[in-house]
Amino acid sequence: MENHFPEKAPKILKEKPFWWKEEVVYQIYPKSFYDSNNDGIGDINGITQKLPYLQELGITMLWICPIFTSPMVDNGYDISDYKGIQPEFGSMGDFDELLSEAKKSGIKIILDLVVNHTSDKHVWFQSALNDSKSNYRNYYIFKEGNNENPPNNWRSIFGGSVWEKVPNEENMYYFHTFDKKQPDLNWENPVLRQEIYDMVNWWLEKGISGFRIDSITFIKKDQDYTDVIPDGADGLASVKHKGRNRPGIKDFLSELNRETFQKYECVSVGEAPGVTYEEYDQYIGNNGYFNMIFDFHYADIDVESGSEWFRRTNWQIKELKNQIFKSQEAIQKNGWGANFLENHDQPRSITKYIKDEKYQNEIGAKALGTLFFFLRGTPFIYQGQELGMKNFKRGTIADFNDVSSIDNYQRSMLEGYTSQEALEFVNQRSRDNSRTPFQWNSSETAGFSESTVPWLKLVGDHTTVNARVQLEKEDSVLCYYKKMIQLRNKSKYRETLIYGEFVPMNTTDHIIAYERIGRETIQVIINLSNQASLIEGLSGEILLNNYSEITYEKNGLTLQPYQALVLRKEENNG
C-alpha cells in the first residue's frame, strides 16, 4: 500500500480558452446511425430526426464521417465528388436542413476531409487514366515500372503493392497508399493543392464548423521512390517507411492551414499517424497546423507499432496507463488533444480494454468512459459507445464487409497463420465491429430501420443494450454518460475539468488515476482490474461513481473491480 498522490504540487496553467476546447463531440458513421427511409442504410435525414436524442445526451458538436459522392469501396473514404452528396445518404438539400436544424439545437457540425486520395471514379482520375497527356495526369502519381515490375516494393496499408498497372499503357503504374481504387493525389503539384483549398473553403462558407482531416500524414512521399528492406513474407515493405510523415510535409500542412482553416472561425482536428511526441509543437503548438490531433499511441496498444492485426501484443494495464500519461503530458506541453476510446476504425472499447469478460458490461463501460472523458482535451464519443456496445464475433471471413478486414485476413495466412487464427485476428480488430447499426430499441431491426434488414448484421444484444431501455434506466451506461457531460460542461467544476492541468497520480499498476487542477483539485480514479484494491488517503466529495456504493476504510477507500470514482479533493488531503 502506498501514498497515491503526486510527488510535488504543479503550477496551475493559464490555459487560453477556445470554443472548441469546450465542446463534447459525437462521431456519427452515417451508414449505421439511423435509416429514415427504410432502405437498410442510414442517412442524413436520420441524423436530423435524432437531433433531440443527441441534444438530450448533451452533445454540442457532431463529426460526421464522409457523406460525399462515392462508389463506397471503402465506405465513403473513396470520394468521387467532393461537392456532391452520396445519393443513398440523401441530397445537398437534406444536408442543408441538417445544418440548419443542428444550429437551432445548439449543435455544430464538422465533416471528414479526405485529401490524401480520391476514388478511381473521380473525374480527375478518369481523365488522368484515359489520357496520358491530360492536365489531370499530374494530379496523381504515375511512374514507369522497373523491368516489368512495379516501380518499388512498397506495400499498401490494405495489403499488396502500392502500385497498380495502368490499362492499355506499357509499363506504367499509379500509386495508392490504401486500396487500388483509392489513387493518391499528388501534393507536389501546386495546381492540385489549390483545387483542394478551394473545395475546403467552399464547405466552410456553407457554414460547417470545421473538419477532421483524414490520414493527412500520408500526403508527402520520399520522391526517390526507392526500395525498402522487406518487412514481411510477401517481399514488400510498408508504405509507412517512406510515405508517412516525411521531410517536407510541413510545407504542405502550413500552406493548407494558411489557405483554409486560418481564414475561418473553425476547428481542425488532424488524424496524424506517425507523428512523434517531439513533433507535437509543429502540429498543435501556437503556430501548429491543426487545433488538435488524435493520438493513437495508446489506441493501438494491442498491436505492434500500430501495424498489421496479426502482430498482437500481450499488453498490461500498467502499459496502458503509461501510454495515456505520456500522451497527456506531451500534448499538455505543446497544445490540445482530441480524446477518444472508439472510432469507425477501432474495435469496441469494452471488448478491447476490459480483459475480464465478466466485466464487459455496464460497470466496465462506465469505468472506461470515466477514464477517457475527464482527460485534458476535447472528448469524442463514437456512436454506440454511450450504450456500451460490444464487438460482434463472425464465423467466416465472408461475413465481413470491411475491405481492410479481408486484406488482413489474407495477409495473416500469408505470414503462416491458419485460417482460424487469421479469423480470430480479424474478429478482434475488424472495423466492422464499430460499424454495426446503432441500437435504438429492442425490435428485430434494433430500431435502425422500420422493417428492412440493415446493410450490416446487428451485434445481437440489442434486446437489452439499446437507447430506449437505457434512457429509462437511471443507472444505465447512457445515463452515466449524460452525467459525465453535465459534470464537465455545466457544473461548478466546469473550468477545472476543461482547462485544469493534468497531473498523474502515483498508484499500483492496475489503478489508473490522475488529477485535474484548477480552482479546485478533481481526482479521477479507476480500478481497471477484477480485484478489489485499497487506496490510502483518499477522501473528498464524490462527484461520480459507477457503483451504487462506496467502501470506506479507516485509512482510505476500497475500489471494487472496475470501479471508477471522480471526487473533489479535500484541501487538507495529501
Automatic annotation (TrEMBL):
GO biological process: oligosaccharide catabolic process
UniProt keyword Hydrolase, yes or no: yes
Ranges for domain Glycosyl hydrolase family 13 catalytic: 27-435
InterPro entries: GH, GH13_cat_dom, Glyco_hydro_b, O16G_dom_2
Entry GO CC: cytoplasm
Compartmental location: Cytoplasm
Major subcellular site: cytoplasm
UniProt GO MF annotations: alpha-amylase activity
Gene3D superfamilies per UniProt: Glycosidases, Golgi alpha-mannosidase II, Oligo-1,6-glucosidase, Domain 2
Highest taxon of the lineage: Bacteria
Keyword RNA-binding: no
Cross-referenced Pfam families: Alpha-amylase
Keyword line: Glycosidase, Hydrolase
SMART domains: Aamy
Entry's family note: Belongs to the glycosyl hydrolase 13 family.
Name of protein: Alpha-glucosidase
